[in-house]
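To fix ideas, we close by showing one paired sequence and structure record:
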Amino acid sequence: MNAVSSRLASVDALRGLCVAAMLLVNNPGDWGHVYAPLLHAAWHGWTPTDFVFPFFLFIVGVSLALALGARIERGQTAGLLRTVWLRGLRILLLGLALHALAWWLMDKPALRLPGVLQRIGLCFALAGSLVIGWRARGQWAWIAALLLGYGALLLGGGLTPEHNPASRLDAWLFGPHAYQWDAASGRGHDPEGLLASLGALATTLLGWRCGEALRQGALRTLLALGAGLALAGWALDAGGLMPINKNLWTPSFVLFTAGLAALTLAALHQGVDRQGWPPLGRAFGVNAIAAYAGAWVSTVLLEGMGAMQPLYAAGFGWLQRAAGPEAASLSFALAFVAVWALIVRGLDQRRIYFKV
């Protein structure tokens, strides 16, 4: 096996496609009229939208392997743990800052503490720490412990929206600062809550293991891992042992989405890196944080100034009347993504890359 470059266009492309998909599903013109595949599953089950975040976290693990794998193999780990934790903290703080901006400008009742970037920062730091301190067997043991331990907690504590350990912890820990909070009942839930981050950490570690296979040029191993993980997750769900659930980030969800992400990565690696296909999404991928944070800020500013709905009505009101509200809402989201595609392409052409 021949080791591949630490920078792969396929990885940048898949990361970028995930970011573009995040912008698409997060910015419809009208939240009351969205095509069902562009919404998250209400609870158990999945839609294509439910794949976006786990695919991104999987790529976080893959990118860690490509960036740090060879250095760890050589034993060059001095100062590496501090570097990993500082970057994880910066990502987390950026997420909090974006939520604070939304809280301030959009007059939200409370500052939401958990979030997408907060979970990414936490998983980045924890996964980085584990792969620095443990080799392959230990990493697989951690993945198994996370899936089995978290799965046991869920099975023992309930899997319904009203009764599950993840929501109970969210309510106790975050209260009104969670995504959902009912003061009268004391119930709360956050799709990026703390306990469910155990499953998200397992996703990131599986990304690392698949990234190691990719780094070593072991495409067959990557394909086998992808197929095995996806089948295992599907079987847990189909057999009634553990439902696929993005809100709880269940072990079946971890396995199913990581497997599909691995198969997608293998296909892109074969096509983009080996056969020269165009790396669609690469410009988003090399400026992922800038695109996500910039899109968030632009949306919050438009909403905070009261300009979002007038802009939507002026630009897409005719389409709403001609083709229906769902088509107009999707067209706005596509236009939003297109604007940011132009921005990140311009940044890439000028070799401007924002990192945290």
About this structure: The longest strand covers residues 180-182. The chain is about 70% helix and 0% strand.
